[in-house]
Design brief:
Layout lengths: L25 E2 L2 E3 L5 E2 L29 H8 L16 H19 L4 H5 L10 E5 L1 H15 L7 E5 L16 H16 L30 E5 L6 E5 L6 E6 L14 H4 L4 E3 L10 E3 L1 H4 L4 E5 L5 E2 L6 E2 L8 E4 L17 H14 L8 E4 L16 E3 L2 E2 L5 E2 L2 E2 L3 H8 L8 E7 L7 H8 L11 E5 L3 H9 L7 E6 L2 H8 L7 E2 L10 H11 L6 H4 L1 H11 L5 H9 L8 H16 L27
Parallel strand pairs: 4-5, 5-8, 8-11
Antiparallel strand pairs: 1-2, 2-3, 6-7, 9-10, 12-13, 14-15, 16-19, 17-18, 19-23, 20-22, 21-22
Helix pairs in contact: 2-4, 4-5, 9-12
């Protein structure tokens, strides 16, 4: 909302006094809220601040993140690096809005009146087959959307693929106080809603090329029981078993994901789902543990492990990659010589080994030596050796002696802007002029340099410091500091920072492998493609509906986007509630006015269990 934006007359915690023509403060060209968090060009939060992420659903209905004293010290001294800042954050209800929008989009797709041609062939959009592949916080938003659909009497999506989810099945010290029991019960209940009654229309046989309903989607080598595809080299045909994935939930977890592997998160996107988890809350009366995978697996919940760490798999001493899609089995997450933290072991240097090990022990949760996971994702033909190094400039992996080195990534455009918007970030200083007067005015130099330049070519921070030249140092020493030369310096311009972050080796950042599964298209070609649900997508066959649905799905609803939505031929065919909801989302993006409760109920749906851990008595 407007009262959250840092302005000249309401700076809040923002130090900069550079402003646009409307008085909105800018830190190195980036808008700020009153708590010094960066905002995008539309004063948006870019999907939400990192520190506001949750590992459960009830917390998405709560107040935002508030840093403690230690966290403030870390941020205000850029001890976590230039690209990490977390000030006081807004209420998390925008996550609930995202779930409501997803639920409405799913409901809209299945409520579309079929075209005459589709109706003639018995193709009704109410049978649309929908898979949602969610990543990170998006997985929890996806789960909430299903609970909303169930509450509304609507059908859930047919298949969910959860990648690197922060969802946790344990009590964690994240401020939410949610018990592991509540988290587990919520996940079990939502999974059951998705999987208990798989939708069977259309029949997969109707998709065969010789069926009148096929629509030309399937080739001659495909049937409802098996298909053929070329191998990786594109030379030989491979036969694979086809399966109906409607009514399934898949978890893709990566034991080297250091983001959801943090001790305050303990996400199953790093740790997978064990057979059982520690009991607490109402379940503590029943025993010390609660059945987790033991309960979920019979409900058509499947997990696949994507690990970078190689292991001796046949006892012959030769280490190799752990394939995805081997026959279902109970598998150790770590072998007897592998580290227990998500990692990595080192950044490739001796000092880095000490630093990384210490950091891992302090910040990350750990596996146990004999942690076993039931990896029950269906067997793939062929099993696939995962590529988790997509996007790396310097590839990571295990080195001789088995030390695991993190790969290095080049900061993307958003990361560069996040760094620029961090008022505590430390960038390079450039000499502009020298002076003998430590109280000399900087302003004439600032005005001369910045005059006529666009905001990203201006230098926003200036200072006077003692010269480090040999002559100045000797003069100061000889005169007891009476004669000292000073240097007027400017900080790099935003464009200079972006250029340097895009080229310099010291700006590369260690890969946290939170997106390792996503960043290689081969992972999806050989695994995800086999796990998504196939069936019917007649809605997307219609270019008019496809255009409208894509516009509705984009959360960046500017006035221009809304005008394009209104111009869509099928906009008038949406029900009144949906049209009003779209307008409410436009208003929210424009002014921060949160949609009314008739569009985004702020009471949790029945499938979500909230249970707070009892306070310890002292």
């Amino acid at each position: 909302a407007d009262n959250e934006i840092a302005k000249v007359n309401r700076p809040g915690e923002v130090k900069s006094r550079v402003a646009d023509s409307d008085g909105n403060l800018l830190t190195r060209g980036q808008y700020q809220d009153i708590h010094a968090n960066r905002l995008d060009a539309h004063f948006g939060k870019g999907g939400g601040f990192f520190a506001n992420a949750t590992n459960n659903i009830p917390q998405m209905y709560s107040r935002g993140f508030e840093p403690d004293k230690l966290e403030r010290v870390v941020m205000q001294n850029a001890l976590a690096g230039n690209t990490i800042f977390a000030g006081n954050s807004p209420d998390r209800r925008y996550f609930v809005l995202a779930a409501a929008r997803l639920a409405n989009l799913i409901k809209t797709m299945r409520a579309i009146q079929p075209s005459a041609l589709a109706l003639e062939h018995g193709i009704d959009p109410k049978h649309e087959t929908i898979t949602v592949m969610g990543h990170s916080q998006g997985t929890i938003i996806t789960l909430l959307a299903q609970a909303m659909l169930k509450q509304q009497g609507q059908r859930c999506v047919d298949c969910i693929v959860m990648v690197d989810t922060p969802y946790s099945l344990q009590f964690t010290k994240d401020g939410s106080q949610q018990t592991g029991h509540a988290k587990l019960k919520t996940l079990v209940d939502i999974v059951n809603a998705v999987t208990s009654e798989p939708h069977t229309l259309p029949d997969l046989a109707d998709l065969m090329i010789d069926s009148v309903c096929s629509g030309g989607r399937a080739g001659r080598n495909w049937s409802q029981t098996q298909g053929k595809r070329l191998d990786k080299r594109g030379k030989n045909w491979i036969t694979f078993d086809e399966r109906d994935n409607r009514g399934k939930v898949y978890l893709y977890f990566c034991p080297e994901d250091t983001v959801v592997g943090l001790d305050k998160v303990r996400g199953i996107g790093t740790f997978g789902v064990p057979d059982d988890v520690p009991a607490d809350g109402a379940a503590a009366k029943q025993g010390k543990t609660m059945p987790a995978m033991t309960t979920l697996a019979p409900k058509r919940f499947f997990q696949r492990m994507w690990t970078r760490l190689e292991r001796d798999q046949d006892g012959r001493g030769k280490r190799s990659k752990v394939a995805v899609g081997t026959p279902p089995a109970r598998v150790p997450v770590r072998d007897q010589v592998q580290r227990l933290t998500p990692g990595p072991d080192t950044d490739g240097t001796m000092l880095g080994s000490v630093v990384e090990s210490s950091k891992n022990m302090a910040l990350q949760a750990s596996f146990k030596r004999n942690d076993i996971r039931f990896i029950n994702g269906e067997q793939l033909n062929p099993p696939y050796e995962p590529d988790l190094y997509g996007g790396e400039v310097k590839k990571g992996g295990q080195r001789p002696g088995h030390a695991d080195v993190a790969g290095l990534m080049r900061p993307d455009d958003v990361t560069k802007n996040v760094a620029l918007g961090n008022q505590y970030a430390k960038f390079q200083w450039k000499d502009v002029a020298t002076t003998d007067d430590p109280g000399a005015s900087i302003e004439p130099h600032r005005q001369t340099f910045n005059r006529g330049r666009p905001i990203d070519e201006q230098s926003h921070n200036w200072r006077i410091v003692p010269s480090q030249s040999l002559g100045s140092i000797l003069s100061a020493a000889a005169t007891g500091g009476r004669y000292q030369t000073y240097v007027i310096q400017r900080e790099e311009t935003p464009d200079e920072v972006r250029k340097r972050m895009g080229t310099d080796a010291d700006q590369l950042e260690a890969n946290n492998y939170h997106s390792g599964v996503l960043l290689s298209s081969e992972n999806h070609r050989w695994v995800t493609a086999m796990d998504v649900a196939i069936g019917q997508a007649v809605t997307l066959d219609d270019p008019d509906w496809r255009q409208l649905l894509l516009l509705m799905a984009d959360w960046k609803m500017t006035p221009d986007v809304y005008r394009n939505i209104q111009k869509c031929r099928n906009f008038g065919r949406l029900d009144e509630h949906t049209r009003e909801f779209v307008k409410a989302c436009v208003d929210y993006y424009k002014s921060g006015q949160f949609p009314d409760e008739k569009y985004v109920p702020l009471t949790m749906p029945p499938l979500v269990t909230s249970e707070l851990k009892a306070e310890s008595k002292t």
